[in-house]
Amino acid sequence: MGTSSTAWESPGDVTGERRHLTDLAYRLLGSVAEAEDAVQETYARWYALPPGRQDAVVNPAAWLTTVATRVCLDQLGSARARRERYVGEWIPEPLPDRTEWIGGRTADSPSDPADRITLDESVNMAFLVVLEAMTPAERVAFVLHDVFRYSFADIATMAGRTPAACRQLATSARRRLRAARTAPSPTPGQAALIRDFKEAWEAKDIDALVALLAPDATLVADGGGLVGAVLRPVEGAARIAEYLLFIATKAPALTLLQRTVNGTPGLVAQNGGRTVTVAAFDLSDDRVTRIWAVRNPEKLGAWQTRGHDGA
């Protein structure tokens, strides 16, 4: 993992820390909106300090990262409770590539999340899904150490644990990642395979779709209870192909676009110019093994054309 971090030892202008903090918070929380809230709360706490206490902070960058980490830890605890009540499957919020950016999240957002979140292998959808399965403490220790390259001594200060405990948490998180056999980066032929998948879907060619899917492939959809979506994973190549053709028949006006989703080739489905689904893929041995289809409109604001807010 190679996401650069603000060096623990070097102070800097606090306003220049926003991208680093947003990068960190998105990886910890899996949600752009929650990440922005965490960063906003971090800055609110900084500016609430009396001038004398601000001046006493030797390294403002370290202070902000510590506070952001603790805010995210608190949010992770409450988020787990909320997601237990979530309708259907919960999938992290997908991010577009800035070169393919479609629109802004909201009309009053002056800048786009793609300009504030670094896209690399640590925001691969498969990677984020595994992070969701970790405990909050494992997730924080692993992301801070393996992704942002903080020392366990620094992480201990941020998380309020001992360095040895943080090291153990990160080790446990790595075991989860290895068990999930998640590819750290796109395979060389992924774009071509996704293009073939798109063409087979558009042609309603069930045999071609089955051939592109691993026999034990899984499709997970996230509608959040706001739009129609399967509530449980669809398993097996034949069942997934049948489900996709059912959608193609039920919604003939859908337009499929090949786009980068969280740094890897994916698909975007639009209806009348409005994005209704963003699909991320995981591959193995030149077959699609997993599909994550985000349909919850609250997670698609970044993918809407100007004039559509996804509400």
Characterise the protein shown here:
By secondary structure, the protein is α+β, with helices and mostly antiparallel strands. 45% of the residues lie in helices and 15% in strands. It has 11 helices and 6 strands. It has helices spanning 18-29, 32-48, 51-56, 60-84, 125-133, 136-147, 152-159, 163-180, 190-202, 206-212, 237-250, and strands spanning 213-222, 234-235, 255-261, 264-271, 274-284, 287-294. The chain has a 6-stranded mixed sheet. Strand 3 and strand 4 form a beta hairpin. Helix 7 (152-159) packs across helix 8. The longest helix is centred in the first third of the chain and has 25 residues, at 60-84. It is elongated and about 65 Å long. The two termini are 35 Å apart.
Condensed summary:
It contains eleven helices and six strands. It has 311 residues and is α+β, with helices and mostly antiparallel strands. The protein is elongated.
List keywords for this structure.
alpha+beta; six-stranded mixed β-sheet; 11 helices; disordered C terminus
